[in-house]
Amino acid sequence: MPNIAFINSRYIEFKNAKVHIEDRGFQFSDSVYEVLKVINKKLIDFDFHFKRLKYSSSELNFNIKIDKKKIHRIFLSLIKKNNLTNGIIYLQITRGTQAREHAYKKNLKPNIIVYTAKKNFNLPNKNYKGFKAITYPDIRWGRPDIKTTSLLANILAATYAANVGAYESIFIKGNKITEAAHSNVWIIKKKKIITHPANKEILKGVTRTVLISLIKSLNLDLIEREFTIKELYNSDEIFITSSGSLITPIIQVDKIKINNCKIGSITKSLATNFYKAII
Questions:
Q1: Mean pLDDT, residues 222-237
Q2: What angle do CA 209, 212, 215 make, to 5 degrees?
Q3: CA angle 147, 182, 180 (to 5 degrees)
Q4: What single DSSP character describes residue 171?
Q5: Rounded to a whole number, what is the distance in angstroms from the first to the last CA of the chain?
Q6: CB-based contacts of 141: which residues, under 8 Å, 6+ apart?
Q7: Do 254 and 134 meet the contact criterion of CB atoms below 8 Å apart?
Q8: Which of 241, 234, 240 is nearest to 258 (CA)?
Q9: Which of 57, 96, 258, 276 is buried deepest, with most CB atoms within 10 A?
């Protein structure tokens, strides 16, 4: 079966999916994106992703009115066309194409790109895994709350992590933890679940948003506040969340072992309840 993508108004074989070399997403990272998870052929958390997509495109003043029903139909169609059981849907909207110039012209026509990819998720079953993370300076631009493709700092951090055998890089700004290269960061101390507040210093993760509602429904103790690298190291449990990682335990940070490198009971419980909630 051919791998099918969607470019602007038509479905096309993935190998033939292209945009112009003067597309502003290609030249300036002048674009926004979303990554949605598909589990057991089910599209997960579409409404939350769509809301964030509208926020990102609005913050960058894109000339587009996104048709929610149309986007949803495209996603479902690609799941079917590509026979996707477990994986991700990637959506990118660029400001459009114009002759190379930093200042953008008004009324450019945005380019819309959608495709799928298979992925094995870290699910809370007998194969559930915990991973190592490292810390890394937060050198990103000042608006990580906008989900843009301006990800060079994230790329450097993620590549450094991979080179030292770690799953993720956790960002440090001063002595405070913000988030990670491709996820939000959570710590647990004395049964208190702590994560950075959703302000302009982090991306308001969709998995984060759904998990917060779940934590509240379970009457667990949730605190949204900044926390330090010392608190990170001294945590009873650590986990990260994202559409690709779901709820993934972190059992070592730098040289510090967390919970003796064992997955914590609260983390495992949250992962199990989260999986049941979305499926």
A1: 98
A2: 155
A3: 110
A4: E
A5: 27
A6: 150, 153
A7: yes
A8: 234
A9: 258
Band of residue 10 on the pLDDT scale cut at 50, 70, 90: very high
**Cα torsion at 122, 124, 129, 132 (round to 10°)?**
80
The residue type of 260 is: N
Q: List, by residue number, the catalytic residues.
A: 147
- Provide mean pLDDT across the span 193-200: 98
> Looking at the chain, how many residues does it have?
279
Q: Which domains does the chain have, with CATH numbers?
A: 4-118 (3.30.470.10), 131-278 (3.20.10.10)
Average pLDDT, integer, range 128-143: 98
Structure tokens at 109: 């026509």
Mean pLDDT for the stretch of residues 39-52:
97
Give the pLDDT mean for 62-72. Answer: 96
Two tokens, residue 77: 């169609």
Alpha-carbon gap, residue 107 to 102, rounded angstroms: 15
C-alpha 173/C-alpha 22 separation (Å) is 35
Lookup: tokens for 192 = 């208190």
